[in-house]
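anyone else get weird line breaks when pasting these?? whatever heres mine. first is seq + tokens for prot A
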Amino acid sequence: MALTTKQVDKLIRDAQPGAVADGDGLYLKIGPTGAASWQFRYQIAGKRRMMGLGACSVLTLAEARDKAAEARKLAKQGIDPLESRKAAEVAEKAAVTTFREAALDYIESHRAGWRNAKHGQQWANTLAQYVYPKFGDKPVGGVSTEDVLGALKPIWTDKPETANRVRNRIELVLDAARAKGLATGINPAAWRGHLDKLLPKRTKASKGHHAAMDYRDVPAFYKRLTTERDSLSAAALQLTILTACRTSEVLLATWDEFDLDNRLWTIPARRMKAAVAHRVPLSDEAMKLLDTIKRMGKSKGYLFPGAKAGKPLSNMAMTMALRKLGHGDLTVHGFRSSFRDWCAEETHYPNIVAEMALAHTVKDEVEAAYRRGDLLEKRRALMLDWAAYCTTTPAANVIPMGTRAA
């Protein structure tokens, strides 16, 4: 028998826990705390389900019956009312969730899994610079291929590495949005089978390599660096050259990572690209440089402290040192290529020794299985030769083939 408005009011006042049927699957439910709400119970594909319609304080008996009738109609058509409502809620959310909001949510969700805070900041910076101005305020489900191309084309040729990172980050944000139901269809930032048909491959747009100094010019450049006295940026660049390490590995170095008695610098796994600790043998020249840096006495923490207390030099410090010496067309990372070219052209050291000196991952599975050590002593000999090469005069900067060859 159907309920009346008076009966509903009395049941709510009495607040007796339980459920009272109104008919055709509609129930008035009183919870343990006395809270009253409407429920619709139905069966779909042989399974019984219950759908909340709303609180009695905001939904009258007549309104509850109307909602139950709508849900009943869907169920008779074989459509699950609950799933239909969820889809509508997702569609509504997709219409108001912007790409910027989806990106910020992605960054926050993945931040804990990234090796360092810098990675998250790089994500935020690149999206803010190249993407948000183009379609950051557009609904994430409405981002199109044209939108993505609009963000990528201005930098695809001039900044290929950055452009590829930006494309990948857009793709990941949109993939996450699709997983949440906020977007559908093909990902407009996907490369294979999509953007690869619309943009030139990076190898054609640009070599994608870091601009590097010819290894034959390194000794003369290194000599110029030594004249930059009391310059932490120049000293950082010297250490980068001598150790063939990456920019961040050098700038974030702290004194407690160095075992000067054993002439060894151990970079912890959390700071390495491959997330594996890397031991760097220190040459005589590197030891001499470290002594000079220590005598500068500017910090007991970072080797290269920045202007702000407790912070290292900025990523641009060594780049600015390059520009100051007239090499603004080169990159700091390029000195790793200079080192690698020297190894190949001027020495007989095996490739694996040079690759390990650069902390590159051994890609060949068979090779990796047998190379369980890090070839420290072989690399020590290599780095001694490299330092000797860097500090020779330009007229005599070639180490004879086979010197300390492993």
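and prot B, same format (seq, then tokens)
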Amino acid sequence: MAQLSNRLQRLAPSATLAMSQKSSEMKAQGIDVINLSVGEPDFNTPDHIKEAAKKAIDENFSRYSPVAGYADLRQAIVDKLKRENQLDYTVNEICVSNGAKQSVCNTVMALVNPGEEVIIPTPYWVSYPQMALLAGGVPVFVQAGFEQNFKMTAEQLEAAITPKTRLLILCSPSNPTGSVYSKEELKALAEVILRHEDLYVLADEIYEHINYTGRHESIAQFPGMKERAIVVNGVSKAYAMTGWRIGYIAAPEWIVKGCNKLQGQYTSGPCSVSQKAAEFAYTESQACVEEMRQAFERRRNLIVDLARQIPGLEVNVPEGAFYLFPKCSSFYGKKVGNRVINNSTDLAMYLLEEGHVATVGGDAFGDPECFRMSYATSDDNIRESMKRIAEALGKLK
């Protein structure tokens, strides 16, 4: 019987993309669905960046680029890391990829051997454990729930480390929770990492600029950590460039060389035109980044306020990204008619079919007590969606 490889059979499909697809299908049937399932800014790419892409086309940037990306873009990233993060890298310590998602996967594939362990704080972005499995690694989950603001402690990290531990994946600001690690919290984690010789940290900082704490902190800033950290970032969230597919790693040169070797075999360099647009995004005015951040902060305040008015939901205040991850377990066991809500996936499907609001169950993120809503949408959509959610949840008895 024909069947796919064992490697693929170990993987689960992306729950966020699956929920988005279901909501799109309902929309196609004429149903008015508000989609809060996808982590994507609703803004258009700023005009000055689009103009740079048009110029690149006119100037015939239409051929293969170097595997690691154009030197000019890598220099722009080096300059950005120095200017904004006080981190010193060279162009040889940067690898540009087809989105930060590929940057994460490249790193996992380059560092993790079969049987080695990858520590992943829970809740996690849906793809982290799947990428560990793809590399033959073993995901080790550290529960960091609602009560601790979804942040892993240094003590929890130390307790999870074994002789097989190879990599920690840390996302701050976090998808799916919006939690942001403080400088003190990161320093404590860094001290644990430095005590273990072969342990590295993949710092996913893609939401760096969607941050309401006043300043982004990177775990790579501490003495000794630049040699142990792989910083992942990109243009998707900060510049509303999700479809342009440009991400990067900043890491020790031997890791970058490994990722280049891997990337050279299965994608080569990323889109030439997208790279020139990204270079312009990094080198020109950053006013657009702050404008979008302010809009997200306003929406954060709105959705938190409205969600707190819904009986049965427990809501924390996310400090970054554009997600709310409320605790909804008080609804488990409740029903309307013959429909029983047993878990967060049931709840998300109920909200979609009954309330016509697409969310994602927390099961997909490793936290079955919560569900995720993206507030990367208009104020009107937020108000209407929260009204629908309140009405749908109010029917459960």
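btw re prot B: The chain has 13 helices and 14 strands. Residues 6-44+288-394 form a domain with the Aspartate Aminotransferase, domain 1 fold (CATH 3.90.1150.10).
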